[in-house]
Amino acid sequence: MKSAVVLLSGGLDSYTAAAIAKADGCDLNALTIHYGQRHAREVEAARAVAKSLGVARHRELTVDLRAFGGSSLTSDAAVPLDRDLEATDIPSTYVPARNTIFLSLALGWAEVLGARHLVIGVNALDYSGYPDCRPEFVRAFETLANLATRAGVEGEQFHVETPLIMMTKAEIIRRGMTLGLDYSLTHSCYAPLPSGRPCERCDSCVLRARGFAAAGVPDPLLAHP
Fold first, then answer.
1. 3-state DSSP percent of the chain in helix, strand and coil, to 5
2. What's the CA angle centered on 15, arms 162 and 123, to 5 degrees?
3. CB atoms < 10 A from the CB of 1, how many?
4. Regarding the domain with residue range 2-222, which homologous superfamily does it belong to in the CATH classification?
5. Are 124 and 135 in contact (CB under 8 A)?
6. Alpha helix (H) residue ranges in the chain
7. Bridge partner residues of 87 (DSSP)
8. Domain boundaries, the chain
9. How do residues 40-79 score in pLDDT, each as one tens digit?
10. Hey, how many other C-beta atoms are within 10 angstroms of the C-beta on 148?
């Protein structure tokens, strides 16, 4: 069985990516990062998702990016709502270098575990325009991983697995449904209401809603008051 470190945020995408890796024969070691995100409800979701997947290990690591700021997810700046998703600007919800930081942490743990697969649920189609969700970023990081580690220098090969990268949100949801995933465990919203319910207006909520609508199934998070 292949051993993998999966970055698990508690969102729909990371849950599905982890489930696909498991279905492909990977033994999962889940890593959840407390990075000072304002939507910390996702950490609770990550715990529920990890339990549901039956991961071998689940580590939670704190790297508080609020010290840098630069994002509406790590500061008091307002999360943009009702944004035009066809816009070409990078929104304020982009967290500077987040996926580079997260993958680096996953790489360090993978080298210790002897795992050679890193799994991340990035997507280059139905997303908000983040530069660290693109295939060229993933290829560059994989090259770095094999240059910057003892395992790589000694001839081992790390692989960054991105099973969702060229899928639409609807395709992701349909794939998850075939795997029997319970999406009521997940959390996607950038600006949840005090009750914890999704705002239904941020980029993440809108993309999620479009995906469920296109997949022809109801979003279980919205089925309950």
1. 40, 15, 45
2. 35
3. 7
4. HUPs (3.40.50.620)
5. yes
6. 12-23, 41-53, 98-113, 135-147, 150-153, 169-178, 203-215
7. none
8. 2-222
9. 789 999 999 999 999 999 999 999 999 999 999 999 999 9
10. 15
